[in-house]
Specification:
Elements: H1 3-6, H2 16-29, H3 32-35, H4 37-57
């Protein structure tokens, strides 16, 4: 099995995860989530926003990230349908 079949998306999109893991490990080692919770929560939001911005800037609008295309007529916008 090829790694491309296991790991979806561009290889560059996997780059932030070890960086995030290193930041989170550092914050845990200095007890940042206990001593400075407000800054910890802000850091989580900033990291999440930065990663999402990175993903959006490095992806084209028409790129598919799923393994298979969605079936016709499948509701992919949410879990419930309004009737």
């Amino acid at each position: 099995m090829k790694l491309r079949q296991v790991f979806l998306g561009k290889p560059i999109h996997w780059l932030p995860w070890p960086i995030i893991a290193a930041i989170m490990t550092w914050m845990d080692s200095v007890h940042f989530h206990i001593l400075r919770f407000n800054f910890f929560a802000l850091a989580l939001l900033v990291i999440a926003a930065a990663v999402m911005t990175f993903f959006l800037l490095t992806s084209r609008k028409d790129e598919r990230v799923t393994r298979e295309p969605f079936a016709e007529g499948t509701d992919v916008t949410g879990t419930a349908r309004e009737e």
